[in-house]
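Fold this sequence, please.
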Amino acid sequence: MSLLVAGTSAWADDCCAPKSVPACRAKVEPAAAFSDKSLYQTESKWTTDASKQIKLADLKGRPQVIVMFFASCQYACPILVHDLSRIQAALKPELRGKVGFTLVTFDSKRDTPEALAKFRATRNLSAANWTLLHGESDDVLELAALLGVKYKEEATGQFAHSNLITVLNADGEIVHQLVGLGQDINVTVHELETLLTKNNATPE
C-alpha cells in the first residue's frame, strides 16, 4: 500500500392503539444487529463539523464511501477528496443522493468541528450526503486499523498516510477498496451501483 506525505514523496506501503404507553410498558426497540465484519459495531463517538455527536452506526442505511484525511494537507488529501467527487459525479443521477461520502480526520488537534466546517465550505461539499468527522486520537487509531489505513504524524505536523478509498455497504461492511491517487474509479462506481440495485438502499 503506497503512503504519501502531503507535499512530499511517497513511502511504502443508517386506530385502536392508546395515545400513550406507560414507561414500564413502553416498547423497547432492539439494537441494530451488525455482523462481526461491520465497522458499525464500534462504540467510538465522533463529532461532525456541525458539532453533532454521532456513532459510526448512525451512518447505516446506505452505502458509504469513506476516506481518512486531514484538512491542512496540501497534496494527497485534496486529490482523495477530488476522487470522491469524481465517484459521486460518475454515479447515475438518480443514485447520487443514495450514497454517503464520509471524511474522517487524522488531525484530532487542529481539525476541530469548526475547522472541518470551513473545509466543507471551501470544498463546497453538500450537507445532504457528505459527513465530516472529528474524533479522539484513540478512536482515530482504531478506525484506521479497521480500514487498513496507516498513518504517522511527522515533526512538521503533517501526516504520512495511506491513500485509500473504502466502500462500505449499508450495514458497515467493507466491500471494496481503491488504493492510490487519481485511480480508475469505474470498478468503485460499479460496486456502489450494484449495492444500490441489490439492496434498494435509500438515504435516511
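The two ends are 34 Å apart (CA to CA). The longest helix spans residues 76-90.
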